Amino acid sequence: MVEKTINLQNSQLSWLRLEQEFSFELEDSFYWLLSKLDIHRFSFEHDPDNNSTQTLFIWLPLNEWSVRDQEILVQSLISLTEPFDLTLPECKWIQVKDEDWSLSWKINWKPDPVGKSILILPAWLDVPEKFLQRKIIRLDPASAFGTGSHPSTRLCLEALDNEPPVGQTIADLGCGSGILSLTALKLGAKSTFSVDTDSLSISATKINSALNDVPENLLNVFLGSIEEIEANMPKEKIDLVLCNILAPVIKLLGPSFKKIIGHKGKVILSGLLVQQIKELQEFFLQLGWQVLEIKRKDQWALMVLTLNLS
After folding, report:
1. pLDDT exceeds 70 at position 56
2. DSSP character for 247?
3. Fewer C-beta within 10 Å: the chain N or C terminus?
4. pLDDT score at 43
């Protein structure tokens, strides 16, 4: 699952800032809409102390957005709540002058403990004393395509935390910021092979790998998809596949999982909605997989698969 945070550049414009609180389930829908509308100056910001909502910030050039345009944008956001049977609180419109956008991220992002042993830490902060015993994953929000706040990402992090992949070779499909690859390595993985079709995600993963002092031979990053894993993986194949991507993409990749995974390996699927569980179960059963575990968080689900060897 790709969580986008777009870094903003300074300009001489005055801006309108839309602030919209929303439930986590809507993040992917909101990202899809904003991308479709060619709106790139936005961020999703999550307070670790609030487990139910986050805030969408959108910056719009004041001289380009009429009141009518603003109303249409708000109604478009509201329309996306209907499939989830949710509502949105009233949004805020604030006129702002130019500001240092990178400092804005730093103000709003806090250390975020996950599970029993993980801490997602903004790269410029020191480790809080109460978290010194945790595995620290440092991330730079200026390049963060996944900060751990989305339920699907959190499900993956918690799954790794509950069953650390010690000594395993990992494939991370749709690596985003590299957060899952980095966590796997911090929890004892032997190496990771991480791919994404977005070149910005590849850059983000490399930046965050450097922030965590990970040797290049441990976190192998490639632009592309599962074919890059197949071309570059070790002879003994992959022990664990991490696939935090939306369900339609999972179904496209699913038939190729057998090409990369060892016969005792596992696949962790996330990014699927609870109502898609049955569909995905039936799909992978027909491909020769069995479901070991299903977990849910809000309206999102995680599924653990292994090859059916019987």
Report:
1. yes
2. H
3. C
4. 77
